[in-house]
Amino acid sequence: MGIRLIIQGGLTVNRKTLSLFTLIAVLVTLPVALGACSGSAENETKVRIGEVTRSIFYAPQYVALSQGFFKEEGLDVELTTTAGGDKTMTALLSNAIDVALVGSETSIYVHQQGSDDPVVNFAQVTQTDGTFLVSRKPVAKFDWSMLKGSTFLGQRKGGMPQMAGEFTLKKKGIDPHKDLNLIQNVDFANIPAAFSSGTGEYVQLFEPQATMIEREGKGHVIASFGVESGKLPYTVFMAKKSYMDRNQATIQKFTNAVHRAQKWVNDKPVDEIAAALTPYFADTDKEVVKAVVKRYKDQQSFATDPIVDEQEWNNLQDVMQAAGELKQRADYKALVDTSYARKAIEAAK
C-alpha cells in the first residue's frame, strides 16, 4: 500500500505515482502554503490586558473579544483578571501587563506619588458608577433619609465605588461617618457573602451580585449610585506613557476595536449582548446576565465612545476631593490622551 502525503489545505498525493519533480515541487511549496495559513497569527501584535475584576459592567471589552474586533485589528489579546485596583496598577507599572482596565482614579494616585512615567487614560469603557443600594427588607417608597442610623455595609476605602457612594450620600444630606454605622473592613470579594449572612441593613453592591441576592430573596435593589453620582470616567483603558509612545499603532488599533464594540453594544438588543458575554460568565445564570445587561444599559453605564471627557474628569476629582483622597487636582492633559479615541470615532463613520 502506497504512503500518502496529506498536505494542509486538503491536497492528497500517492507516492507510487508521484514523480520526482512533482515531489520536489510539493516540498518547495509546502512551507509557503503553511505560511499562508499561519501568517495572520504570526503578524498579530500581542497585548496583555489586566482587568481589575471580572464584571458584566465591562461588557464592551468582552464583546471586542468575542466578536473578534481585536482580532480583526491584528491584535492577539491576552486577558487576565488582576483582582483589585492596587494589584492592577502594580502589574502595569512592573510591565506584567501592557494595558489596564481599571478606575481612572488609580492613574491619579500614581501621579500623586510623582511618577516619571505617568499612566495615561486613553479609552473609556464605563461612564457611571456600577454599584446599587440593596436593602435587606423591601421598601415601598424609598427615601435616602431612611439610611440614617442604619448599619451600612460599604465598599473599600479609597476605591471608586466607596468614593462615589459617599459622594451620593453626602449629596442626599447624609454624613456616612456620623449618620451611619459604616462597615468598611470587609474585602471586596466577601461583601455579598457578608450581607447574605446577616451583616448590615443596607449594602452597596456591584452586579451581578445585587441581582443574584435579589433573586434569592435575600435583599432588594432600591437605588442606583451610578444614577445619583453622575457621569464619571469610571473604568478606563490606560497604559504607561512610555508604552504608548513606543506602540502608537497598537494603541490605535486597540482603541478602534473598543469603539467598534461600544457601537455594537449600543445598537444590539439585550439578549444578543448577553449571548456575546456568556463565554466570560459561564458560571452565571443566563437570565441574570440578561437582567444585569439591561440594568446597566438602561442607566447608560456603558460609554458609547472612548473619549475621556474633561467635564467627567473634573467630576471624578470632585468625588475624590469630597472623600479626602485627592492631594491636589491632576491636570487633565497630563493624564488623558483623547487623540486615539477621536481617530477611532472618525474611522468608524
Task: Set down the secondary structure blueprint.
Elements (H helix, E strand, L loop, with lengths): L3 E4 L3 E4 L5 H24 L1 E7 L7 H8 L2 H4 L2 E7 L3 H9 L5 E4 L2 H8 L6 E8 L4 E5 L15 E3 L6 H12 L9 E3 L7 H6 L5 E5 L2 H7 L4 E5 H5 L5 E6 H6 L1 H20 L2 H8 L8 H13 L11 H13 L9 H4 L3 H10 L1
Parallel strand pairs: 3-4, 3-5, 8-9, 8-10
Antiparallel strand pairs: 1-2, 5-12, 6-12, 7-10, 7-11
Notable characteristics:
12 strands; alpha/beta; 5-stranded mixed sheet; signal; single chain; 3 domains; disordered N terminus
What does this structure look like?
By secondary structure, the protein is an alpha/beta fold. The protein folds into 3 domains: 4-42, no CATH class; 44-128 and 233-348, Periplasmic binding protein-like II (D-Maltodextrin-Binding Protein, domain 2), CATH 3.40.190.10; 131-229, Periplasmic binding protein-like II (D-Maltodextrin-Binding Protein, domain 2), CATH 3.40.190. 45% of the residues lie in helices and 17% in strands. It has helices at residues 20-43, 59-66, 69-72, 85-93, 105-112, 160-171, 191-196, 209-215, 225-229, 241-246, 248-267, 270-277, 286-298, 310-322, 332-335, 339-348, and strands at residues 4-7, 11-14, 45-51, 75-81, 99-102, 119-126, 131-135, 151-153, 181-183, 202-206, 220-224, 235-240. The protein has a 5-stranded mixed β-sheet with strand order 4-3-5-12-6, sandwiched between helices. Strands 9-8-10-7-11 form a 5-stranded mixed β-sheet, sandwiched between helices. The chain has a two-stranded antiparallel sheet with strand order 1-2. The N and C termini lie far apart (60 Å). The relative contact order is 0.17. It comes from Paenibacillus flagellatus. Pfam families: NMT1_2. Its main location: periplasm.
